[in-house]
Specification:
With about 300 residues, the protein is an alpha+beta fold. The protein has ten helices and four strands, in the order H-E-H-E-E-E-H-H-H-H-H-H-H-H. The protein is globular and about 60 Å long.
Length: about 300
């Protein structure tokens, strides 16, 4: 084998080291951003394209944590804005937030968050820079982006280790507290049962924080186990549904309940297509009183079919 000259070897090692360093220090999110402004009757639609590019850059280049992520470990997520009103640089509308995670030893991905925020209201001037700050509220828009970045991180980490997302929930809580003092919409406690304050509260308030145990047990002990033992994994998922029942018993209007439904109901239908009758009956017994308007999918669980 021909040996490389020392100078070439040194250069090669330097490149490898640099690449490895970049992989370890990669930003956390692989976020797809889309803005739909079809409902807006505006002459200048370029501002929405500029905003989409700015948010995409912000979410995919801001390093929100000190955690080390390899490029292939980035969290897959999506922000879909629907702008319904635009006047004097103020935009109002909805934001659909979604995140997924891979399931161990399979090509399957599972939805962790699928939430619609209907309290989107912020100002933005075309080409305005979006500045990240963890300890101050630079703008309503960056506060919203930071909140959901930390929520995505928190739930993802919770799904891999019990209460693993604690530090990210703390950062999300700091954002909520800063935003509440600003008087901006979507942050106030008791303002709305499904605003950002309520979403955070569903995870950190003692009465409903058991949803975090469900996140870990459902994904790490349930779904991840199914590749090796489908019956064992499905049995664990069935037992985790009791945590949803506990949330319902103490807080029947908790946003945690609708967030679980929107993220997991279609998946549950598929999981129980191969479940035993006893498992299906148990799942239906728990879910029916909590989700009376979702009888179509609950019936599919009962019958063990996704048709």
């Amino acid at each position: 084998m021909k040996l490389l000259p020392l100078s070439i070897k040194t250069a090669v090692l330097s490149v490898i080291t640099a690449i490895s360093s970049l992989a370890c220090e990669a930003q956390e999110l692989n976020c797809k951003v889309e803005i739909n402004a079809d409902q807006v009757q505006a002459t200048n639609k370029q501002v929405f394209q500029t905003l989409q590019e700015a948010i995409n850059d912000y979410m995919n280049t801001t390093k929100f944590t000190n955690a080390q992520f390899a490029t292939n470990e980035k969290i897959e997520c999506r922000l879909f804005f629907t702008i319904k009103e635009y006047s004097d640089n103020t935009m109002k509308g909805d934001l659909q937030v979604q995140s997924i995670r891979p399931v161990y030893n399979s090509s399957y991905t599972t939805t962790l968050i699928n939430f619609k925020d209907s309290k989107i209201d912020f100002t933005y001037q075309e080409n305005e820079p979006l500045i990240f700050s963890e300890n101050s509220m630079e703008s309503q828009l960056t506060a919203i982006l930071n909140f959901y970045a930390y929520l995505i991180l928190a739930v993802d980490f919770d799904s891999f280790s019990r209460k693993g997302g604690e530090q990210f929930f703390e950062r999300a809580q700091n954002i909520v507290q800063l935003a509440q003092s600003s008087g901006e919409i979507g942050w106030k406690a008791f303002e709305d049962s499904k605003n950002r304050s309520s979403v955070l509260g569903s995870y950190i308030e003692p009465a409903t924080s058991i949803i975090r145990d469900l996140t870990y047990e459902y994904h790490r002990e349930g779904l991840d186990e199914m590749a090796l033992s489908p019956d064992k994994g499905r049995a664990k998922i069935t037992s985790t549904l009791e945590n949803i029942q506990k949330v319902y018993n103490v807080a029947p209007m908790s946003v945690a309940l609708s967030m679980f439904r929107d993220a997991k109901f279609d998946e549950l239908v598929n999981i129980y297509t191969k479940g035993s009758q006893t498992e299906r009956e148990k799942a239906v017994e728990i879910l029916s009183p909590i989700y009376p308007t979702d009888l179509d999918r609950i019936t599919k669980i009962k019958n063990g079919t996704n048709k």
